[in-house]
Amino acid sequence: MKIIIVGAGEVGYHVASRMSFENKDVVVIDRDPVAIQRISDNVDVESINGSGSSPRVLKEAGLKEAEILLAVTDSDETNLVACLMADVISPTTKKLARIREGDFDPYHQVLHDQAPHIDTVINPEIEVVKSIERFLSIPGAVDVSEFADGMLKFIGLYLDQGSLMAGIRLREIPEKIGQQILVAAVVRKEELIIPGGDARLYPGDLVYFISEEKGVAPILKAFNRETKPVRRAMIVGGGRIGARLAGVLEKKGIQIKIIERLPARCSELAAEMKKAVVIHGDGSDQGLLVEENIREMDAVVTLTNDEETNILVSLLARRMGAGKSITKLNKFSYFPLMPTIGIEQVVSPRLSAINTILQHIRRGKVFSVRTLTDEQAEVMEAEALETSDIVGRPLRKSSLPKGSLVIGIIREGQVLIPSGDSVIEPGDRIIIFAKRQVVSKIERILTVKLEFF
User: Fold this and answer.
1) What pTM value is reported for the model?
2) How far apart are CA 124 and CA 143, in angstroms?
3) H helices, E strands: number in the chain
4) How far apart are CA 222 and CA 225, in angstroms?
5) Residue 265 to residues 279, 280, 281: CA-CA distances in angstroms?
6) How many CB atoms neighbour CB 331 within 10 A?
């Protein structure tokens, strides 16, 4: 597979790195020589210093041989023009563009009317708002994803001292909490483990499990997590994401306060919001937080464009008595540091963009992809094709590589938590957890059997 990436920023860099790790043919284009040099020095891909919207540069990159063109610069206009030029030069190349302005909403037909040359629009801000909604519904979760239209939830929780789960073997968990549960992975001392039934859980473990919606509450209780609903929330930062989130939470009946430091933006928000209270000020001002009753907030979401401000306000909010804090970060280098300073719930527009991109790059009939925040593994939701090498045999006899696990099966609207004796049938939706080292093998398994040819 040949992929051309226009834009060598954080998203372009990380997608290029991931695809290079999987031995895909990648070309990266960027006008910034510093960004191109960073790619050249650290990633085994071809790099071109030039404009991704230039027909000459696109031809030089080998566009006619590329299966996918991915436009992920920081400019919506550049991404749109790059896809337009690519559509003229190579109509059969699949074109994906990151578009962040609200006018280009992938869920509205107007986008497809305005930009028919784009096959897929990626709006990471919409996905970030969905991530925040999920975090607000699962107290204390480090990671929350949904599969099969919400029928299955994939959740990561830290195991605290004194939890019912501490010290018990995995095969004992269903009896302990009174329901079926499948633990997909454990992160212990920064190492990701896919454990067997005899493995034990220990305080400090980050435990990833999958469960039906109805089974989440007993699991949270076993992990000593409260299930108190969020009724009051404060949003620090009234940009596009903050405004979109406030609108969504307003409809759910949650009382909202928005703190925004720019007076003109405050006026816009006040006119736009129906019930939310808009406050002009600095979200890191402790006096303002006290005045606005921070300790009465069930959740504080920090969404400014400054990483350090988001981290500081989240820490202040927790120290001053807020129920929980959710922090927006873009710098991937910050992610490993967050748990050590007490910040567990993190959202990232860039990581959301990467998840959406991977969904469209993966071979096979893939519906969604979620990358763990430390990028050690992926969770894929896909259809088991009749020609796939995974159907028609018990999972314990399947060709799944070591480092992967089928963690969910949806058949005719029914959820099945699989065991080694489970047999996948053609047409099943399957959820697969896979370490990054074996993702390419999973892709091959999800496509066709060798004997099919």
Assistant:
1) 0.85
2) 17
3) 14, 22
4) 8
5) 11, 9, 11
6) 12
Per this entry, what is the length of the chain?
A: 453
- Report all structural domains of the chain as residue ranges with CATH numbers, in order of start: 2-122 (3.40.50.720), 138-222 (3.30.70.1450), 232-350 (3.40.50.720), 352-452 (3.30.70.1450)
**Mean pLDDT of the 240-246 span:** 95
Beta pairing partners, 232: 255
How far lies 279's CA from each of 176, 235, 238, 268, in Å? 47, 10, 10, 12
- Retrieve residue 397's tokens: 């006899």
| pLDDT tens figures, 179-194 | 778 899 999 988 899 9
- pLDDT of residue 334 exceeding 90, the answer is no
| Dist CA 148 CA 153 (whole Å) | 9
Pairing of the two strands 206-212 and 152-158: antiparallel
C-alpha dist (Å) from residue 289 to 81, 188, 196, 257: 44, 36, 47, 11
Residue 440, C-beta contacts closer than 8 angstroms, at least 6 positions apart: 22, 23
Q: What pLDDT shows up at residue 452?
A: 38
3-state SS assignment for residue 117: coil
CA–CA separation, 118 and 111 (whole Å): 9
**What are the tens digits of pLDDT across the range 269-309?**
999 999 999 999 999 999 999 999 999 999 999 999 999 99
* Residue 263 · residue 240 · CB < 8 Å: no
